[in-house]
Specification:
Strand order of the largest sheet: 15-14-13-21-20-19
Number of strands: 21
Shape: elongated
Number of helices: 17
Largest sheet: 6 strands, antiparallel
CATH class of the largest domain: Alpha Beta
CATH architecture of the largest domain: 3-Layer(aba) Sandwich
Strand content: 15-25%
Radius of gyration: 43 Å
Distance between the termini: 128 Å
Helix content: 40-55%
Length: about 500
């Protein structure tokens, strides 16, 4: 009797326990099913945790984070950027439907098991889907730049010192860098502060435009009433400056000038194009006398050598070399020391102009640009390249061109012209020239080597009336000094 009672109680207890377990399971399943009305645990929307929230609450939380203002720092200035100002919008319509995909992948029973054991659930993140107006962002940043940029002031020409007044340093917003930085912050839930990239500008060095102003002001201060032409070329950068002035007014070049003794540079170049091997003592003497002493008789003998015994054929060949080098305004059609012995004048683009006429020698002409181009070619050849070697393969070498520069450097005529304005540390390889005293035409063409840079500088002056040698010399020295100071601001 007692044993039977124990069995019945155990059965009843077991049945009640089973029923309770079933009821508890059903209750937990009901609670778990209700959890489907909220987002799964461990879920993030665009790295914003939203597990356990309703979709509406999750959307509000997402927008609260991504619509919060950005703090932009421009040096010591703080600017707030409301994302709405750039039409920033989060596309929750694309993000929220992806929640069901995570539920389906997990499965009902797997999710229920994690629920029963109070497991946090698998961490998942739905990537941000958002868009904004980059043009509006760029406009916003441009407005910041307009308000807070302080560009450095450019240097100014100072003709009294033949130099420049220093510019002021400044700073400016790096616009492209700022757009990238703000873009990253707009798309981040935590990084809502942006240090805007700013370009610090050191004191601005003068450029060729400022040097142009200085030279024009300098020529004006000399009250030079004739025609003045200048060509400048930086041998490191290739930048060029061309200035042509008549009676103080700017005009366009090129302008034909008498070649004077500067024509001896093209003659020397042509002679070296025919030279094979080392120079003989006789050739070396002729070159020295032609360049150093500016002897016309020695130059005529060089022309005779170029023409293989015919000086006039030598002039034709010099002109042909210049034409092949693309220098159409430079020619010679007569010997220098034989009066009346000439060929026909040669028309050129420069001497065919009707608007300006410097009354150049009909048989010996050039322009400031042509002579500058030629000297630039000689320098480039001395460095192993350039148009001279390209136009005449095998005829020129760096050694030949360095030898030509040596002859021009040996033209020591005292502290006058470009040499006079290129002290104390300039080495000037040049050929100067003038026609007669009192003067109508003066010129100097040079390669100038200085600690601050190497450049080609040519200047040609003409007056219909006569000009004093000292006046022309002072003007050329002054302009050469301005150029030297540009390259060597410390002196």
């Amino acid at each position: 009797m007692k044993a039977g009672s124990r069995i019945n109680w155990l059965a009843i207890f077991s049945g009640v326990s089973l029923m309770a377990a079933v009821v508890l399971l059903v209750v937990e399943m009901v609670f778990y099913s209700r959890s489907f009305s909220t987002l799964p645990p461990g879920l993030s929307l665009a790295n914003v945790p939203v597990g356990g929230l309703s979709e509406q609450q999750a959307q509000q939380q997402l927008l609260l984070v991504y619509h919060s203002p950005l703090q932009l720092k421009y040096r010591d200035q703080i600017i707030l950027l409301d994302p709405a100002a750039v039409n920033f919008q989060v596309d929750t319509n694309q993000m929220l439907p992806q929640v069901n995909q995570f539920r389906a992948n997990a499965g009902f029973w797997a999710g229920f098991w994690e629920y029963l054991w109070l497991q946090p659930g698998q961490s998942n993140n739905i990537p941000l889907q958002a868009a904004y107006s980059r043009p509006q962002l760029r406009a916003f940043l441009q407005d910041i730049a307009a308000r807070y940029d302080q560009p450095g002031s450019p240097p100014k020409a100072d003709p009294n010192k033949l130099g420049f007044q220093a510019g002021e340093p400044g700073h400016a917003l790096d616009l492209d860098g700022a757009v990238s930085a703000v873009d990253a912050s707009l798309l981040s839930p935590t990084n809502r502060t942006v240090v805007l990239p700013v370009i610090e500008q050191t004191a601005i060095r003068p450029g060729f435009d400022t040097l142009d102003q200085l030279i024009r002001q300098d020529v004006s201060l000399f009250q030079f009433g004739g025609v003045f032409s200048l060509y400048l070329s930086d041998m490191a950068t290739g930048k060029e400056l061309e200035i042509d002035v008549r009676n103080g007014q700017s005009i366009t070049g090129p302008i034909a000038y008498s070649g004077m003794s500067t024509i001896k540079i093209p003659i020397m170049v042509s002679f070296f194009g025919q030279a094979n091997g080392g120079l003989s003592d006789a050739s070396n003497l002729l070159l020295k006398r032609s360049i150093d002493e500016s002897a016309n008789s020695a130059t005529d003998l060089l022309l005779k050598s170029i023409g293989h015994g015919d000086g006039f054929d030598g002039t034709r060949q010099v002109t042909a070399v210049m034409q092949r080098l693309g220098l159409p305004n430079t020619y010679i059609s007569g010997l220098l020391d034989v009066l009346g012995a000439v060929l026909l004048p040669i028309p050129s683009p420069a001497n065919s102009r009707a608007d300006i006429n410097t009354q150049p020698d009909p048989y010996n002409q050039t322009t400031a640009e042509d002579m500058g181009y030629l000297l630039g070619m000689v320098y480039q050849c001395s460095q192993g390249g350039g148009a001279l070697m390209a136009a005449f393969p095998g005829s020129y070498s760096p050694d030949k061109c360095r030898k030509m520069i040596d002859y021009l450097t040996g033209n020591l005529v005292g502290p006058i012209f470009i040499s006079g304005g290129s002290t104390p540390n300039g080495v000037v390889a040049h050929k100067h020239g003038w026609d007669r005293l009192p003067l109508n035409n003066v010129a100097d063409a040079a390669i100038v080597f200085t600690p601050g840079g190497t450049y080609v500088l040519t200047m040609y002056l003409h007056t219909d009336d006569t000009m004093a040698f000292d006046d022309a010399n002072r003007l050329i020295i002054s302009v050469a000094r301005a150029v030297y100071n540009y390259y060597n601001p410390g002196g």
